[in-house]
Amino acid sequence: MDALKADTYREFGRFSWWLVVKGFFLREAYRVVVTLRWCQATRQLPSAVRWIFFVPARLLHGLASQWAGIELPWRTPVAAGLALTHGRGIVVTADARIGSNVTLFHGVTLGRRDQIDSEGLRSTTYPVIEDEVWIGPHAIVVGGVTIGKGSRIAGGAYVLESIPPRCVVMGNPGEIVKNDCTPDVDNRWDPSSDASPSRHPAAAP
To answer: Is the pTM of this model over 0.85?
Structure first.
């Protein structure tokens, strides 16, 4: 449950099980994160009892996702400290990979990219989002690209190429407009501490 503790810290700036319960009932986007973690945790249980907990978890995750208007498959590898800001309209392919302390705003798409060569063979690739990445409203990241640690993708950007760490990206197609930027991580979760004190003020790229 360490990942859920980190997600809760990102959401509220502190952790308690009361906040998990409160957020589950009152915050649609956070509820999706909770059910995602529940699915992933119950999937690791011994096979004798796994389905008793995993099947209800999957059903609840499906309902939570539908209510929130978010497509975040339970199979998606997501490190600790995910923050879904507003959330509605987020679409993530199951084969994308998301690092720790990542922030996704409403309308973000992390999608697959299919390419067909001259012989008609199809290749499919998926994005990798490294730690502390901030992705603004309605940004699109597709294909086998890597968004480097601490980078910030501005709202509405369309990213088809890998981005180095700590860059600000804007536009369609996405272009780097600033290097060595400060990562935007509100309520940063420090995995070495259960009482992470690190906090950065929100800032738009």
So the answer is: yes
